[in-house]
Amino acid sequence: MQYAKKVDDAANSGRLLPFTIIKKIMYDNEDLYQEDETGVPSRSQKKREMIALQRLAERLMKLSPELIKKCGLPDYFIEEVLDAKSITAHEGKRRQTQYVGKLMRDLDPQPLLNFLEDIEFGNRTDNARFQSIEKWRDGLVAGDLSILDEIMTAHPQAERQRLAQLARNAKKEKDKNKPPKSARALFKALRELSE
Q1: To the nearest 10°, the Cα dihedral for 90, 95, 97, 99?
Q2: 133-143 pLDDT, tens digit each
Q3: What HAMAP family does the entry give (predicted)?
Q4: Which fold has domain 125-194?
């Protein structure tokens, strides 16, 4: 029942639920499916499922229109999501979000969950890559030549002389409190190497 409470709390506060809780509610957590003698889920269970689907729709609406179109859902559904995204009036947006959640009842949410998780995982991967590039750049600007050797080992096609020159220029700019033009160029060069 802890997941049911989290859903109710999240619904009341307007927070989005993590995917793991949504999955547990919809698929894994069998004890939440309170059925009466006829085998029909309780009204509370239906509400929890609808709230979970609505939260999933809200998560989808936060994506860019290009990503929404790539989600692999029917065109009529994508149109409604894009309409909800374009509405600025609070009450209108709320009603359209509820409508999108209602439309999701007729769709299998698993492909959408997978799509959103892939995007989230891709963002985490990109963030980790950018952090490693920033670490390399900061080390080069600080004058750590072992990082240049590490870069050359990882990317033999890199132009060692160009990277060293950009690092020297970035260090000079930093020492003179000038705008970090060379540091940006160094970051861009390192990013191009890692792609």
Answers
A1: -170
A2: 888 888 888 88
A3: DarP
A4: Diphtheria Toxin Repressor; domain 2 (1.10.60)
